[in-house]
Amino acid sequence: MYLAEAEIDNNYAAFSSDSVRKQELLNSVLKKHKITEAALDTSLAWYSGHLESYLKINDAVGKRYVDAAEKLRLKEGISSKQKSVSADQLILPVEKDNILLKSSDLRNNAFSYKADTVLNRYGGAYELRFTVLGLSDSIRRPVVTLCVQCIDTAFVKRDTLSRNGLFTTSLDVRQGKRAKKLYGSIYFPEVNPEMTVLIRDFTLLYSFRSQNPPSMVVQPPK
């Protein structure tokens, strides 16, 4: 599934407009390993209650792929410092890409994030992407907010986290509008002392060309 997600990242323009192709690729991984999507969901649900085991596995697999990717970069003469996902897309820097959230970490029931850079870009599309683990029936659906602050306007997108697994959301900024900041939050309507949620591969992306029809909420800056 890591490799399939990487393939989707590296061919974002093709996969973003072809949901059938994306699903076929993910289904091919399940077919190769002879499991169903329901079995994968059941496994993720089990690991939601055993996050320490999941983190050990995730760290080992992540290190393996980082090492393999670095060897491939060296072979092809590509610097590991390059941050381009594709020709028209950039990864924006964030403080952490793996976050373990407990109730004590959530100020006002929310986890706040931002891109650690000044944007100064006109138009384009912004995407938030991560994998979540640890959601359960006892946690009301968290609300994910993505906001692009321009000089005179804020573009805002809100979604809910309904299940464990890969989550993506995006919004377009109108041409002629210059973005200054990218930030947002994950708000938990209610928390309990036993709650532990893992956010893995937290990624913010910028695409030079818009990907979606303009359906975002536009608000004046606070």
What does this structure look like?
This protein has 5 helices and 12 strands. By secondary structure, it is α+β, with helices and mostly antiparallel strands. The chain has a domain at 84-222: Jelly Rolls, CATH 2.60.120. Strands 1, 2, 3, 6, 9 and 11 form a 6-stranded antiparallel sheet that branches. Strands 4, 5, 7, 8, 10 and 12 form a 6-stranded antiparallel sheet that branches. The longest helix has 26 residues, at 51-76. The radius of gyration is 18 Å and the shape is globular. Mean pLDDT is 81; it is low at 79-84 and 213-218.
Helices and strands, with pairings:
Layout: H1 2-10, H2 12-16, H3 19-32, H4 37-48, H5 51-76, E1 84-86, E2 89-92, E3 99-102, E4 110-114, E5 121-122, E6 125-133, E7 143-150, E8 154-160, E9 165-172, E10 178-187, E11 196-207, E12 217-219
Antiparallel strand pairs: 1-2, 2-11, 3-11, 4-10, 5-10, 6-9, 6-11, 7-8, 7-10, 8-12
